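Please check these two lines:
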Amino acid sequence: MEPRSDCPINAAVEVLGDRWSLLVLRDVIFSDRRYFRALLTGSPEGIASNILADRLVRLVEAGLLSRGTAARGQRAQYSLTEAGIQTLPILDALGNWSLTWRPAANELHARQQFMHDQGRPFIEALMDDLRARHLGAPPKNRSGPTPFERLDAAQTPAD
């Protein structure tokens, strides 16, 4: 898709600026929802099936997701591309803005606050884990819980 102008912000907004695209990417990144049905039923915002189908096609065409081939009767799996993985800092920046200007008290707020507190090295570690999950890159050798395990623990209320 050719952008309407040479402005880099316009080019990004044309791919990411609609109501649903970033939320679909959020669900693939943070919830590891990689199948149509999981994305449809797992969205707390209640995306309609026709809208989801359209956004998945757009995200594949824009090079942010790839769609695995599925034999007849099987489900296609969606995977992030490197361009899709590179949207994580954008999602993080939007979430950080929301911490200040649209506060909420729930587990998703706790997740964002944890990412904010951990900073850029944590975002880079999440991106490394996404490369292992989606692109088949070798996992980074780390001791202790993975970044996604740490993130899950941060959004789970303490007993």
